[in-house]
Write a structure and sequence with these properties.
Elements (H helix, E strand, L loop, with lengths): L2 H10 L2 H7 L3 H56 L3 H132 L4
Helix pairs in contact: 1-3, 2-3, 3-4
């Protein structure tokens, strides 16, 4: 694709429409910026070459202008010395130099127009590139915010899950403590009951022994 064709494509491109259709807008906009930068390099190189040609024509113009003036002075000198033949030759050379001067003047004007157009194209591409870079920066920042928000949501969800797990753990621990206390109470109550039953059983046995001793005539 030629630089001029790419220039037209870029200038006429509807960036928002292209991004809406792109599967990966960030990648698409990077490619667009690269294409614009490549086109700018070629446009500036072409413009520089045209400016160099214009400078060359300008130097030739100044040299030819000096030649016209020099042949005019020689013609005048020849006339003053009564050398009309030499004056004629000088005037012929002046005429040739004047024709070349007109051509160079036209060349310079053509170069000026071409350079003006080239600079306009460069300016348009630079403006378009600045707009694309701005959109890219906005896209990057929006993507960054989205990632940060997602990370924050993930952190909150993890914290919530951890808090829930901690609460469940605390509840389970509390239940375990309550159950242990109940078991201890039941054990303590059971032990106390057994002691009193033992005492009651001892009283019954002591009573039976006393009865047996009484029957046996023993004190």
């Amino acid at each position: 694709m030629g630089v001029f064709s790419r220039f037209l494509d870029i200038v006429n491109a509807n960036i928002n429409s292209l991004l809406d259709k792109a599967e990966d807008p960030e990648k698409m906009i990077k490619l667009m910026m690269q294409e614009m930068e490549d086109t700018l390099i070629e446009l500036k190189s072409s413009c520089a070459a045209k400016m160099a040609s214009r400078a060359k024509s300008e130097r030739a113009y100044q040299e030819t202008l000096a030649a016209v003036e020099r042949w005019q002075q020689r013609a005048e000198l020849a006339i003053s010395k009564a050398r009309e033949d030499l004056a004629r030759e000088a005037l012929l050379e002046k005429k040739k130099a004047s024709a070349a001067l007109d051509q160079l003047k036209a060349d310079i004007a053509r170069h000026d127009e071409v350079i003006k157009v080239a600079k306009g194209e460069i300016s348009q591409i630079e403006e378009k590139l600045a707009s694309v870079k701005q959109k890219y920066q906005m896209m990057v920042e929006r993507s960054k915010r989205a990632r940060e928000e997602q990370a924050a949501q993930d952190a909150l969800r993890r914290a919530s899950d951890e808090a829930t797990a901690t609460r469940f753990s605390d509840i389970e621990e509390q239940i375990d403590r309550m159950q242990a206390a109940n078991d201890l109470n039941r054990f303590t109550s059971a032990t106390l009951d057994e002691k009193f039953r033992d005492l009651e059983e001892m009283d019954d046995i002591d009573a039976e022994i006393a009865e047996l001793r009484r029957r046996a005539g023993l004190k």
